[in-house]
Amino acid sequence: MVLPRSYIYIFRGLSLKERIPFGINDHIEYTKLAEDQSCRLHRADNSNHRFLYISRIDSTSRIIEGYYEFEGVNDCQDTIQIKDGYFKVSF
Fold first, then answer.
1. Whole-angstrom Cα distance, residue 58 to residue 10?
2. For the chain, which end, N or C, has fewer CB atoms within 10 Å of the first or last residue's CB respectively?
């Protein structure tokens, strides 16, 4: 079973404990299960409603943690709104 996933691409330096607005070259996407493959990917469509906040970087345990929000649209014009996205990833 494939679960829905969010992908965040930041093409610059990041700051800890600071709201990071997305720039023109940054991207955030959400992929969900859908029968129509063209409708699976939702891309952030509004630069005013997308941001990333990194609350913790642990270089010893190699963990980055934080949250994000964005509004997205897919090729079928379906929209999503994520207001409390949370991540904790290892690197």
1. 19
2. N
Q: For the beta carbon of residue 85, count every other beta carbon within 10 angstroms.
A: 15
Q: Please tell me the predicted confidence (pLDDT) of residue 66.
A: 92
Q: Please count the helices (runs of H) and the strands (runs of E) in the chain.
A: 0, 7
How many other β-carbons are positioned within 10 Å of the β-carbon of residue 57?
A: 15
What range does the domain containing 38 cover? Answer: 5-90
CA distance 61 to 78: 39
Rounded CA-CA distance 53/84 in Å is 11
Q: What is the percent of the chain where pLDDT is above 90?
A: 15
- How many domains, the chain? 1
Sole residue written with tokens 């079973």: 1
**Count of beta carbons in the 10 Å neighbourhood of residue 21:** 10
Count CB neighbours of 75 within 10 A: 13
